[in-house]
Amino acid sequence: MDIVLQQLVNGLTLGSVYGLIAIGYTMVYGIIGMINFAHGDVYMVSAYITAIAIALLTFFGIESFPIIIIGTLFLTVAVTGAYGWVIERIAYRPLRNSSRLAVLISAIGMSLILQNYVQLSQGANQQGVPTLLTGAIRFTVGDGFVQITYMKLLILFISLLGMGILTYVIQKTKLGRMCRATQQDRKMASILGIDTDKVISTVFVIGAMMAALAGVLITLDYGAFDFYVGFIIGIKAFTAAVLGGIGSLPGAMLGGLILGLSEALFAGLISSDYKDVFSFSLLVLILIIRPSGLLGKPEVEKV
Amino acid sequence: MSQAVGINFKKSSIDSLVAGFLALILFGPIVGVLLDGYDFDFEFDKVAWMVAIVVVGRFAISSFFQTEKGVAMAFRYASNDDGATVLAPGHKSKMVWIIPLVIAVGLLVPFIASKYVLTVVILGLIYVLLGLGLNIVVGLAGLLDLGFVGFYAIGAYGLALGYENLGLGFWSMLPIAALLAAFAGAILGFPVLRMHGDYLAIVTLGFGEIIRLVLTNWASFTHGPNGISAPLPTLFGLEFKRRSSDGQTFHEFFNLPYDSAYKYMFIYLVLFAVVWAVLFIKHRLVKMPIGRAWEALREDEIACRSLGLNHVLVKLSAFMLGASTGGLAGVFFATYQGFVNPSSFTFFESALILAIVVLGGMGSTLGVVIAAFCLTVLPEVLREFAEYRVLMFGILMVVMMVWKPRGIVRVTRTGFATRKGAVK
Hints:
Chain A: Keywords: Amino-acid transport, Cell inner membrane, Cell membrane, Membrane, Transmembrane, Transmembrane helix, Transport. By secondary structure, chain A is mainly alpha-helical. Chain A is about 75% helix and about 5% strand. Chain A has a two-stranded antiparallel sheet with strand order 1-4. Chain A has a two-stranded antiparallel sheet with strand order 2-3. Chain B has 17 helices and six strands.
């Protein structure tokens, strides 16, 4: 019982982070109908920038935890957002009217570039960040206990905050209205005076920023990362996006939570060696059985 | 294009300043602060160099595209080049002369090249085989398969495991591996028929990763990350070892001194023959209705289906043929290395094969052969640039898609002439 509860706690935090990254996939897919293959690597870049930001902040003599975490969040989100913008500008904008195959291949190229760029400049070794926040709340359940670390609470809080802000932006602000209009009908939106190129760039930046949030949180919690982490987590976040219904924001969050929970339970109860196999199989199964996901609309094939 | 042409220096300067600022944001943290455990070092000079290069480069590009030549060039590349080049009906291919020449040179290679060169050329030929296989799936049928390495792994592990568990050798495994991989292709292909484009890419990627993870984790069967040894090929039962385990060895039978290069020569010759066989089969297939159907499906699936083409059969056949070629390549890879482990079958390998197809030109056989050699042999020659290899592949893929999405060698096709007396 205590194992199940503990895995539920772990799964919840993991799932909220998957949800954050999934937002990047789902928004880009919703607006230009392509999978941003380099998104997982944007997450990976943000993990590196997290470690660099912490190192720089401590170098300048800042020791207090709240300032470090806020500073790190701010720096990482800003720099990663710039990555999102540049990636769109270089690899996707020139291909706006090309075939989907061309865009996808260009995205794969971008992913290789990011991975190798980080590997060349920072080395292939695993890197780490110091543990900043220790301590936990413990509950006794039966013979064992369930432990919720403060870090996990922080992850849950910040990711919910991030999703909340994003939902507000998309639902209430002018920028969000522009995004939704572009998502519904790009041509019509541009006829009505929306600069759709700018909106698409903005969506890429928002997606990268959300991935950066996830990057900071996971890196602080887990401590270690290398240039290859983006690949696996990218596919998992994509699975979350597909599970929830690609193109739908609440779907991404829901899909993230479901994937995180089921993966944590699978790892805890059945086998942790095969948990990645589980996620990949889940992805294949969803795409075969219900490609439109839980909250998504079925895709209409246009002739 | 009747705009007044002249370089607007203000615009170029702003462009380059913006680019420089962005480069500072992008390169600053990752390049400028080198993490070293929980410690770090500053490397400002590298960042300064990179930013300077970006600023100067952006200024040059920005200025160039304001000149008359630049405008013309931008216009030329804005229009996408589509489809195949159609040759005149009476066109005689120069290949009639080139092919025998290439075969003759190819047959000479093992006898004049050193052992090192031979191993590099074998590797190149293995990638030619892989490229040809993926070219059927991606280039001809337009199904983006990112898990192609899975079939390669099936071939390689098929030889190693078949030898260990069933005592099957190289020759018996060659056709079996092709069938096994084709079967796996069908298993993968069948459920994903309903998907296309991006979804298909992700599912096949997942498939390739599942195979790699199973190979890594199922240690009792596959020996996990430690890998497993694979048998050498034999010539009518003659082995290419110094001492035979049973029966005779090649050098004893022919009264030759022992040389470890013999086995590579033999692998090369077999591989060379197989590559030519695959080339020939593919060449014929493309002209047959099935090949035409692949290409038609690539161009417009909905139109094909409404015209009554059985898309299930067409897609499955492409998947299975591509996969079986990958399986063949896997057998050669295993016997060439004498050893297989899961680290040879990562996603990067799939991306490399895809880069071969993309660079060579989707659907173009000649292009794929040239690209396979360029991408595998060049890094061997330019050893000092080896660490930039992946970066180059990435840049190549982006640049090719932006610049020439159909690859360097365009697909050509001989046109038809109307019959004499036919209605015009």
